[in-house]
Structure formats: structure tokens, C-alpha cells
Design brief:
Blueprint lengths: L9 E5 L4 H12 L3 E6 L2 H13 L3 E6 L5 H14 L5 E4 L15 H27 L5 E5 L3 H4 L5 H20 L6 E6 L6 H6 L16 H7 L9 E3 L5
Helix pairs in contact: 1-2, 3-4, 4-6
Length: 239
């Protein structure tokens, strides 16, 4: 249930055209935030925009491939000119890549997954971090995975990209410890998304929680009264 706990906050969500990013965007908007939704798929963004505005919320969409790091750099300047700050950053966009032995991973696929799962988030912090510092309560939330802890065979590429993300976010949280910024990580668990369907082809939608069922933790970590930073939170008990 919405409580308007994020009334007047400005939130940017990556990977917002489907899955977790789509539902988190809707939830943040329902709590009163103006959501800036980023994704590669324009159709999904337009559907999101329609849903949020039909419910009385505020949304701005931007079609962007996070592999285009120069555009991420330009994003910070654009947001500064229009809004002057950013309150909430949700680094959700990610890709699975190939489930294959390390020696069989295509260099092209390796570079793409590292670019989206790790480097793009570094560029987001670099570009948008100064805007979070302009907020009275900047919140940076990054979506990782329990794959980092499990280190299963054939998952090396995805695991390495998320392990790098976690190490970077933990360092960033410590660097910002005396500021108004709180940076944390979410392990969403196994929820029904296109990525889960690709990783586990035999799974059915009814076998897993829906992305809409795990949005509470995002609201908690986006709240202005949050005290913790540099922590990993579990969104569900199903991994």
C-alpha cells in the first residue's frame, strides 16, 4: 500500500522497461516520487509512462543503452540543468550473458556484460553522484545477486560482474559515510523475470514471486530516514 513516503523526491531507475525495474518505478511513483525511467526498449518505457501517469504519478522516460557510457556522462549535466539534484538512484539494469565454462566465454559477450553490469554503474556514480550530494538525503540502490556468494560453475561472467559491482558499491558507501548519501545493495532473489526464464528455461511464472512483490525493500532503502549504508539486503527468501 502506498503511503506517499517519497513525496517530492526525484528517482532515477535503470532497466525500467520490464521486470524489477518496471515494478520498482511504478512503486516509487506511487509513493510520490517523480521517476526518471531509463531503458533500451522504448515500447516498455511508454507503457510504464502511461501506467504511472494514469495512476496520478510523475514520470520522465529516456531511451538509453547503458553501454553508451558517454551518454551516461551527459545525463548528469542534463539532470542538473533541469532539476539541480537527484534524490534516489536505482542501478537495476543488468544482463546475464552466457552460462558457459570460463574458457568458452566470448570476448564480445564478456565485454558487454561487464560494460552493463559493472562499468555502467561506475559511470552512473561518476555522473550522478554529485547530484545525489545536492540532495538532503541521497540514496543509491544497486541490484546484485546471490550468485556472488554461490559462485556456481558456468556462471563466472555474471558472477564476476556482480562481485565487482558489490565491491565498488561498498567502497563508495564508505567514501560517502560522512555525507547525506546512503548506498546499499539488494539481492532480489529468484523472481519471475526474463533473465530468470533465460537462466532456468523449465521454470514457470507461477513458480516464483513476481517483481511487484519485492518492491518494499526499495522503498525502505529510498526513504529519507534510512540510517544504514554499505549493506546487502535480501528482497525475498527464495534464491
Amino acid at each position: 500500500m502506498s503511503s506517499n513516503s517519497l513525496e517530492g523526491r526525484l528517482a532515477l531507475v535503470t532497466g525500467a522497461s520490464r521486470g524489477i525495474g518496471y515494478e520498482v518505478s511504478k512503486r516509487l511513483a506511487s509513493e510520490g516520487a517523480h521517476v526518471i525511467a531509463l531503458a533500451r526498449t522504448l515500447g516498455g518505457l511508454e507503457e510504464l509512462d502511461d501506467e504511472i501517469k494514469a495512476a496520478g504519478g510523475q514520470c520522465t522516460i529516456a531511451q538509453m543503452d547503458l553501454g553508451d557510457h558517454d551518454r551516461i556522462d551527459a545525463l548528469g549535466a542534463s539532470l542538473y540543468e533541469r532539476f539541480g539534484k537527484l534524490d534516489i538512484l536505482v542501478g537495476n539494469a543488468g544482463m546475464l550473458g552466457e552460462l558457459t565454462p570460463v574458457g568458452h566465454i566470448s570476448p564480445k559477450v564478456w565485454d558487454r556484460v561487464i560494460s552493463i553490469n559493472l562499468t555502467a554503474n561506475y559511470r552512473l556514480i561518476r555522473s550522478l553522484g554529485p547530484l545525489l550530494q545536492q540532495s538532503d538525503a541521497g540514496r543509491a540502490i544497486f541490484v546484485s545477486s546471490a550468485a556472488v556468494e554461490e559462485q556456481n560453475p558456468f556462471w563466472a561472467l555474471y558472477t564476476a560482474s556482480k562481485a565487482g559491482l558489490e565491491a565498488m558499491v561498498m567502497a563508495y558507501a564508505k567514501e560517502m559515510s560522512k555525507s547525506n548519501i546512503k548506498a546499499n545493495i539488494i539481492h532480489p532473489g529468484r523472481v519471475w523475470t526474463a533473465m530468470q526464464a533465460k537462466a532456468y528455461p523449465g521454470i514457470k511464472p507461477d513458480d516464483l514471486p513476481k517483481p511487484s512483490e519485492i518492491t518494499d525493500i526499495f522503498v525502505k532503502l529510498a526513504s529519507t530516514d534510512l540510517e544504514v549504508t554499505g549493506e546487502i539486503f535480501q528482497a525475498t527468501l527464495t534464491e
